[in-house]
Sequence to fold (136 residues):
Amino acid sequence: MRLLDVEEKERLVEEFRASLEHWVRARVNAAAREVSADVSLGFSGNANAFVTEPGPLVEAMRSAIRDVTGRTAALSTAGGTSDARFIKDHCPVLEFGLINRSAHHTDEHVAVADLIQLAAIYERFLERFFVRPGDG
Fold:
């Protein structure tokens, strides 16, 4: 596996954005010409991707998950866009929560047992993350 350094990642993201913008602009302009329409097209966004690198925050959560469930959590960037993107530049962030088929749909629901386990994991995470030296 090859990891990208920050500058290379930023360059590749910018190249992708420029390429996508060019592609969209060409398709929209072609469609507008077909119907003799005038169009104005602008691009903006605030959903900058991020990855929280392994460290004390991530390890505290992984340990909490293992303590409560007996399973080792995999680190993953799957799951879509997150509101964490708005605060990632101001404090450390990670995402952990329930996975369910009804998420963000009408009649969203989860099993009560899953909520109880989730609360136990978060409680253990807080105990691990905010441990004082000597408290072990």
Observations:
- The mean pLDDT is 85.
- The chain has three helices and no strands.
- The domain at 56-129 is CATH 1.10.150 (DNA polymerase; domain 1).
- The radius of gyration is 21 Å.
